[in-house]
Amino acid sequence: MTELALRADSFLACDYSPQDVDEVSVMSRILRGFILMTTALILAGCGQGQVSFEGDIQPIFAKSCINCHSGTGEGATSSAYVMTDYDSVMKGTTFGPVVVPGSRMSSSIYLVVAGKTAPEIRMPPHNDESFAEGRGVMLSANQIETIGLWIDQGAKNN
Ligand code: HEC
User: Fold this and answer.
1) Considering Cα of 52, then 125, then 83, then 153, what sign does the dihedral take?
2) What's the total number of domains in the chain?
3) Residue 73 and residue 113 share a domain
4) Which helix (H) or strand (E) holds 150?
5) pLDDT at site 65
């Protein structure tokens, strides 16, 4: 009697109706699709590739920073931060380096452009005066991310 009931139980537990089978294969197809998509995304992330200082970073600095951070510009005179070439970008201010290769969150150059500091020291300057002069234009999200990636990838001179 108990043996029979047990057998009936296990029979029921394994009893897929054709509809269940369909559901299982749909699920596994969705799962397979998901795995493929994830792989593709990871590959795409890697395919984002190496950021180039010369090709990607220097043009951003040339357009938005060098005006002030070279020669007698106010950024160069007040913080001694010159941004005309790789060596001076890496050398930093009178207080030391602002780029910490491998870590954007430890790099004040990233923090000031990403708006993660007090408004007074955001770069390009975000004070009322610079807005009035049309100079307070923040970098685009894309440019900020490019700088962050360049730092995370080791801030290479490439
Ligand atoms: C309108 C002029 C101007 C522009 C444009 C400008 N800066 Fe500056 N920058 C300054 C001045 C002035 C200081 C000094 C601020 C201070 O010490 O209070 C400074 C300081 C800095 C510092 C040092 C911050 C610290 O830790 O003390 C960094 C890093 C910096 N700028 C990066 C940039 C970057 C990157 C750009 C371009 C995206 C840029 N700046 C554009 C004027 C400018």
Assistant:
1) negative
2) 2
3) yes
4) helix 141-152
5) 93
Give the count of alpha carbons within 13 A of 115, CB side only.
Answer: 11
Residue 119 resides in a domain: yes
- Output the pLDDT for position 118: 85
105 is written with which tokens? 């969150």
Mean pLDDT (10-residue bins), the chain, 158 residues:
51 56 69 64 61 98 92 92 98 97 98 90 78 74 97 98
One domain, residues 73 and 110? yes
Task: List pocket residues of ligand 1, CB cut-off 6 Å.
Answer: 64-65, 67-69, 74-75, 78-79, 81, 93, 98, 108-109, 112-113, 121, 123-125, 130, 135, 139
Domain hosting 115: range is 53-152
In terms of domains, do 102 and 32 share one? Answer: no
**Predicted local distance difference test score (pLDDT) of residue 109:** 97
